[in-house]
């Protein structure tokens, strides 16, 4: 009679037996059988059947590792069925490995007239493959946006690639030269120009008329500010 047990298989026996006075024994040998087990791989919750592994191991063996099939930008989130003890039921001999997109840092750097202001640098986090389309505006008085490098930014696993650079430069602002004759402004002679923020305007066009002479000039030199209503040079002539 066959007396195999779960997880074993017949290996050999000593049959047929020729009866003798002694040693009338048949010995039947069983060994542990081998059974398939499966490793399934999931990426963001979706199984990639092309990566599934079907392996074989001896009954009762404890499986504590699996072939790593991570891909760029991903990391192991969890595993199910680990450790796995091999049974005769191949339908339950399954390990499931779940990968998800990893968290990576990205940096926003701010430059003013080409010089980076480290105090304004921001370091943030995002998932691999995320697309960053915005940044914090850190313009300062008198400056204007010149350009932004690496925007939109697609998050990669290499930190040096995950840098947005924002460039500001000093803006141009209007200034006005007004002309007064005996205290009366002549609007027809007013001149409007442009100057770089914090630059100095040190001269003006002389518009003296016959019979008049220069009396005084107010607000010269003029340091350009962002307040155009204050960027005024006043030139006074008297008879």
Give me the strand/helix succession. EEEEEEEEEEEEEEEEEEEEEEE
Beta strands, count? 23
Number of helices: 0
Q: How much helix is in the residues?
A: under 10%
Report the oligomer: single chain
Tell me, rounded to a whole number, the average pLDDT: 94
Kindly report how far apart the N and C termini lie. 138 Å
Q: Measured on Cα atoms, how large is the radius of gyration?
A: 42 Å
Silhouette: rod-shaped
What percent strand?
A: over 45%
Runs in which pLDDT lies below 50 for 5 or more consecutive residues are: none
Structure class: mainly beta
Largest sheet geometry: 5 strands, mixed
Structure notes:
This protein has 239 residues and is mainly β. It contains no helices and 23 strands. Strands 3, 4, 5, 7 and 9 form a five-stranded mixed β-sheet that branches. Strands 10, 11, 12, 14 and 16 form a five-stranded mixed β-sheet that branches. Strands 17, 18, 19, 21 and 23 form a five-stranded mixed β-sheet that branches. It is rod-shaped and about 155 Å long. The chain starts with 7 loop residues before the first strand and ends with a strand. The mean pLDDT is 94.
Topology readout:
Blueprint: E1 8-13, E2 28-32, E3 34-43, E4 46-47, E5 53-58, E6 62-63, E7 74-80, E8 84-85, E9 94-101, E10 103-112, E11 115-116, E12 122-127, E13 131-132, E14 143-149, E15 153-154, E16 163-170, E17 172-181, E18 184-185, E19 191-196, E20 200-201, E21 213-218, E22 222-223, E23 232-238
Parallel strand pairs: 3-9, 10-16, 17-23
Antiparallel strand pairs: 1-2, 3-4, 3-5, 6-8, 7-9, 10-11, 10-12, 13-15, 14-16, 17-18, 17-19, 20-22, 21-23
């Amino acid at each position: 009679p066959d007396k195999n047990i779960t997880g074993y298989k017949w290996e050999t026996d000593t049959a047929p037996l020729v009866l003798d006075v002694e040693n009338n024994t048949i010995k039947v040998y069983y060994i542990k059988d081998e059974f398939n087990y499966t490793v399934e791989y999931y990426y963001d919750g979706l199984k990639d059947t092309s990566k599934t592994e079907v392996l074989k191991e001896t009954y009762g063996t404890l499986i504590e590792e699996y072939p790593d099939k991570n891909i760029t930008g991903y990391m192991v989130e969890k595993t199910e069925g680990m450790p796995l003890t091999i049974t005769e039921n191949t339908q339950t001999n399954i390990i499931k490995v779940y990968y998800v997109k990893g968290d990576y840092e990205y940096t926003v750097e701010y430059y003013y007239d080409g010089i980076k202001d480290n105090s304004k640098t921001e370091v943030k986090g995002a998932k691999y493959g995320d697309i960053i389309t915005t940044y914090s505006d850190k313009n300062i008085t008198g400056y204007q946006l010149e350009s932004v490098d690496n925007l939109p930014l697609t998050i990669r696993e290499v930190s040096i690639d995950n840098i947005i650079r924002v460039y500001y430069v000093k803006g141009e602002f209007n200034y006005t030269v007004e002309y007064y004759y005996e205290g009366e402004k002549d609007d027809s002679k007013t001149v409007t120009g442009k100057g770089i923020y914090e630059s100095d305007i040190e001269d003006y066009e002389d518009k003296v008329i016959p019979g008049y002479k220069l009396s005084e000039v107010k607000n010269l030199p003029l340091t350009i500010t962002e307040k155009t209503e204050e960027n005024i040079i006043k030139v006074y002539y008297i008879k």
